[in-house]
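Ops channel
N.P.: pipeline sanity check, posting one input/output pair.
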């Protein structure tokens, strides 16, 4: 639950983040972005630069009255291309120090591209908001690392035996999606069969 720990820390420090976003504006976000990319930050558990950077980025949009979705659309083609290139590089160099140069860029460009794709499809009616997906997000977060992701990866490796880089990219995309799908199914089944147990496991988020 490291994510919740880091989230609690940044929430406690929101007055500091507010001052950074309010007075330093985009320059404060750029400084945090540089720290996020370089990793030059406090090596203290809970004070993750990933949490501080992305939380502050969202706070910056809100404090200055900017529409995050519209702002992230600027340079959407560039972000999309960058996400694809860095994803390939991250998979290709997995397990080596070289990956550290590409991973932060991939995460940032991937998040921006995901927001752009989702908003585009929603606005054109290609997809709709699914209540089951939105209400099961915490369950997926808490559940996916409890054997689900690792077992899904083992099954993929057993069937396809990925050794080529392109199969590893397929694995990188499909395994998390399959694991998330399994978690959603478990959530749906528990909601129908054992809703009280589900309520306890998710802290009342049912």
């Amino acid at each position: 639950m490291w994510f919740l720990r880091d989230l609690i820390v940044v929430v406690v420090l929101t007055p500091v983040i507010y001052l950074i976003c309010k007075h330093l504006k985009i320059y404060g976000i750029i400084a945090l972005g540089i720290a996020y990319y370089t990793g030059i930050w406090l090596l203290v558990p809970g004070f993750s630069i990933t949490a501080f950077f992305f939380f502050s980025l969202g706070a910056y949009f809100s404090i200055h009255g900017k529409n995050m979705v519209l702002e992230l659309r600027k340079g959407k083609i560039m972000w999309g291309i960058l996400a694809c290139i860095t994803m390939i590089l991250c998979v290709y160099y997995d397990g080596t120090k070289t990956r550290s140069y590409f991973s932060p860029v991939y995460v940032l460009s991937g998040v921006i591209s995901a927001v752009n794709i989702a908003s585009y499809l929603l606005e054109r009616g290609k997809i709709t908001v699914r209540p089951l997906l939105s209400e099961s997000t915490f369950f997926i977060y808490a559940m996916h690392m409890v054997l689900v992701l690792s077992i899904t990866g083992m099954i993929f490796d057993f069937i396809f035996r990925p050794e080529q880089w392109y199969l590893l990219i397929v694995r990188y995309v499909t395994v998390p999606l399959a694991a998330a799908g399994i978690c959603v199914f478990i959530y749906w089944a528990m909601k129908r069969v054992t809703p009280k147990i589900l309520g306890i496991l998710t802290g009342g988020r049912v």
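N.P.: looks fine end to end. Residues 131-201 form one domain.
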